[in-house]
Amino acid sequence: MQTDLYTKTGAKSSSKVTLDDAVFGAKINKALMTQAVYVYLNNQRQSNAHAKDRGEVSGGGRKPWKQKGTGRARHGSTRSPIWTHGGVTFGPTNAVNYKKGFAKKMRKQAILSALSAKAKNKEVVVFEGFELGSKQLTKNFSQVLKKAGVPGKTLIIQAQADKTLLNAAANMPEVKVEVVNAINTYQILKYKNLLILKDALVLMSQIWGGKVRKAEAKTVKEEVKPVVKAVKTKVALKKVAVKKTVKKTKKVTKK
Fold first, then answer.
1. CB burial string 64-96: b at 16+ within 10 A, e below
2. Torsions phi, psi for 237 (to 5 deg)
3. Burial of 147 by CB count in 10 Å (0-12 exposed, 13-18 middle, 19+ buried)?
């Protein structure tokens, strides 16, 4: 899959960029993306609402009046839920845990589905970088985006955190700058446009494409092979030595 490449000034380049099919051409699983968004939003939730029960409200240690002889109903504390300024029955508590678990493979597949959906809708833009200068960062940055034709909410993915880019986008509420290994499914689907820097594409294919991990696995196997052979030979020699000793002991016992 190919997409347009833009220069640092926002002009369209003559060359195009090929997107990794393992990352941007995966099978789109809508149910998994929905689950990923649900889990993310639940994990952001805080149980701040809390109502005090009768054991947490101050006061009420003394019995209001004696049990019998007053003609009134019997009470043991002024902090009972039926009293004014008393405790709350079945109120919200801050002991609720809204955290949800999500498997790593499912999270990875949800991210791949979101990226593939963006690429399918042609909402992925690749930039070589940005030339923002030293002054008026936000103004220069907005001009570059307008020149490239990237309106609305935009998520910018970079390989490493760039302070100048972060400062330029700080006053733009519709623009979010994030590092490759920190993005999630919710962010990808929340923003309409996905602006990726060219050097970040390589990291994305390394993290979610699995190319580097396979290469690393091959190198590890090649390095481990001689060690495994040496261990096997040592074990075989020990077995031979044990057999010889067993034979000698049998001969001695027979005599």
1. eeeeeeeeeeeeebbbeeeeeebbeeeeeeeee
2. -65, -40
3. middle
When pLDDT is averaged across residues 195-206 and rounded to a whole number, the result is 89
How far CA 124 is from CA of 40, 56, 143, in Å, comes to 23, 54, 19
Angle between helices 104-120 and 30-44 (to 10 degrees): 120
Q: Other C-beta atoms within 10 Å of 172: how many?
A: 14
At residue 98, what is the residue type? Y
Rg (CA), the chain: 33
What does the pLDDT look like over 49-70, one tens digit per residue? 999 999 899 988 889 999 999 9
Q: What is the DSSP letter of 209?
A: I
